[in-house]
Amino acid sequence: MKRRFFITAALATMMVFTAGCAAKDGGANAGGTIQIGLSAPISGTQAQYGEAFKNGAELAAKQINEAGGIDGKQVKIVIEDDKGDPSEAVNVANKFSSNKDILAVVGHFNSSATLAAAPVYNQNKIVEISPSSSAPGVTNAGDYTFRVITTDAFQASFLAKWSKELGYQKVALIYEQSDFGLGLLDVYQKSARENGIEIVAAESYLPGAKEFSTILTKIKEKKPDAIFIGGFYNEAALIASQAQKLNLSVDYIGVDSLYSEALLDLGGAAVENFKLIGFFYPGGNNEQATKFDKAYQDAYGNRPDTYAAYAFDATSVVIEAIKQGGPDRESIKTYLDTLKDFPGTTGVLTFDENGDVQTIPEKLTIKNGHFVLYQ
Questions:
Q1: For residue 78, what are the β-bridge partners?
Q2: What CATH number is attached to the domain comprising 115?
Q3: Cis status, amide bond into 108, omega within 30 of 0
Q4: What is the pLDDT of residues 128-142, one digit of tens each?
């Protein structure tokens, strides 16, 4: 099936100014390096995720370089800071697209940035592979847009079915006011109803929010069996801690974005028994995840979160594409179009016709301050 992509008037105008300098084909530069772009929020409110991206991508490059590189050439990660902002993401996309030495781009972090930048990459025929943009709209972002994370639609539907298995009859939703959070909200609500679950509240917050007492007080009155969190681990830890102070005793369930040591460190006892899905789970059945966990700790002195693992996988499939087809933008796309059963740290990865990854998560919970498989 041919994927569709849509170019807004503003983006189309912007591309008129950049089309003249956009490279049609990429290649290894004269310096003998193979360059892969990385666009991430290196600064701003999402900088901790940008750091995870940077570490994961650079570790993938480090491993191939220590093994001799690709045909004797070293892989270099070229980093640009999109600040997690859609407008800045477009600027970065134009910069990468017009540089013939950038063979592919790993990024962006949030779905809003990916959707804003996708028309530029597609217009200039350079692969963009996102480690973390899970909004349903990314499916139709264009033929050169891929992602190694499953869609919000898949995750929310999977979690609604698990909620039913757990016996939840009434669930409240707390979600980030973004393409990411709204995608989770829409699908979980629909799937919950199909599974006989009543949604008793749906409360949003802005990215980076610190105070949740007001919405938690309203939710407490509804007496839910569980709270579904459609957001990230920092906010999840704050939600659980503030709910505890309000004597709100409730189960929590959420997506893979909650998987981080930071959730354990920040939430402490308040996040005990959290239930979540995880595609990256070292120490389980995925040998690649366990190897990556050790290599990451050796390199950086701390444990990786799920976004470091996703960035490592996204960079690794680009590296494999270059190994198989050479340092050429179109060859990278051709390889990814047929990627099947790639052994990643986040599972066995296969792309469908829309560039969406197909893989299955683990069911996890928190016991005694550690992530463990849910039994």
A1: 37
A2: 3.40.50.2300
A3: yes
A4: 999 999 998 999 999
